[in-house]
Amino acid sequence: MKFGVNCRYDDILRDDVVSKLKQERINFVELHKIPERININELDRIKGQFEYSLHASVDFRIHPLLSFGYHISEVKKIENEIDFAIASNIKEIVMHGGSFFKGYIRLSKILRRNIGLNFFLDTFSKNFGPILKKAHNHKIKILIENCYPCYLLGRPYDIRYLKCKFPFLGFCFDLAHSEIYNQTEELMKINIDHIHLTDNNKRMDQHLEIGKGSIDFKDFFRKLKAKNYNKKIILECNKLQDSIESINKIKSWDI
Questions:
Q1: Residue 219's domain spans which residues?
Q2: Which sign, positive or negative, has the C-alpha torsion 16, 20, 23, 29?
């Protein structure tokens, strides 16, 4: 398994952060909060330091006033991040589905069903399909992450539905998210291409260091071993040092 850490773009430009990661023999870094405009000098500075993946923006939503679609600026923001990946030779991008409009989840709970879910998934496909294909044409793997049920792609059904439409999409399994909503067993039936790990109390997404919450990680890693998983596992703790400590802790286990 290939362990790595999540890191803000601004932090990876700091010499002390790079030095710390190299000292800890961290080879895989997932960048997030990248700039809107590509700075060639900065790209030259970070290239070759680590093997990078990219976590795309998450702050976008379905708009009822736009025929329940996404604003063009939100689609453009994701496309800009794909362009950044192309320029940086990054081959993996983790992506969420965006949140539903206000009131949708409450109404769904009252009616006990996800109203128009296929319509929203088709709308996502229509709005983002061209840039997903653009990434694929540049040999970049888009990894759909399981998020909260108040987000599109927050259910195993959503992920399977989208992968049927775009077979080239991968799946980023976030254990912390799945444990909160009791989805772990079902999501682990999907082929996993990438993993995000943090700990929590199984009620809130706290991004804690491994061992500081309630998740049974040793059982999880036994299941991963049985699946012969050998791809990336990215720690997403609140603090970079907590992610590093988590990796060291996991490596010390006899599993």
A1: 2-252
A2: negative
pTM of the model: 0.93
Residue-level pLDDT, tens digit, the chain, 255 residues: 999 999 999 999 999 999 999 999 999 999 999 998 889 899 999 999 999 999 998 776 776 545 567 888 889 999 999 999 999 999 999 999 887 766 666 767 777 776 678 888 998 999 999 999 999 999 999 999 999 888 889 999 999 999 999 999 999 999 999 999 999 999 999 999 999 999 999 999 999 999 999 999 999 999 999 999 999 999 999 999 999 999 999 999 987
Into how many domains does the chain fold? 1
